[in-house]
Specification:
Elements (H helix, E strand, L loop, with lengths): L2 E7 L2 E7 L5 H12 L10 E3 L3 E4 L18 H5 L7 E4 L11 E4 L12 E7 L1 H4 L10 E5 L2
Antiparallel strand pairs: 1-2, 1-8, 2-7, 3-4, 4-6, 5-6, 5-7
């Protein structure tokens, strides 16, 4: 059974399959942060219609991180932003991953090879599509298969 995540928001629930087998470092980082409660209560600080929703900044500004950065994982960079519901690391350039992530509304091929893909929405894309800037993640729960 795959590792999954549930993001509870005031607008509904987003269910995500995490690519733990293919991208163990990226998924491991995100899972640890989620289990530590890092994401609970944080805002989706950047929302762009017909593109994506972004969250995971403890400052709510897009400039924060968990106190460290980690390198891009080649297997995550190899995955493509093929459509709606792709979960990917937000970064400020190569090897600057931390806690910020985004979920796509549409295919975003221009991001391929620049942002590590590590999961996909399996239920709740309609919720992703209704998230507005400033909406919160009430709780992120991990279910390890």
């Amino acid at each position: 059974m795959p590792t999954t995540a549930t993001i509870n928001t005031p607008k509904g629930t987003i269910e995500i399959e995490l690519f733990a087998e293919d991208c163990p470092e990226t998924v491991g980082n995100w899972v640890k942060l989620a289990k530590d409660g890092f994401y609970d209560g944080l805002k989706f600080h950047r929302v762009i219609a017909d593109f994506m929703i972004q969250g995971g900044c403890p400052l709510g500004t897009g400039t924060g991180d968990p106190g460290y950065k980690f390198d891009d994982e080649p297997s995550a960079l190899a995955k493509k932003h093929t459509g709606p519901g792709i979960l990917s690391m937000a970064n400020a350039g190569p090897n600057t991953n931390g806690s910020q992530f985004f979920i796509t509304h549409v295919a975003c091929p221009w991001l391929d090879g620049k942002h590590g893909v590590f999961g996909k929405v399996t239920s709740g894309q309609n919720v992703v599509d209704t998230i507005a800037q400033g909406d919160t993640m009430d709780k992120v729960t991990i279910n390890e298969g």
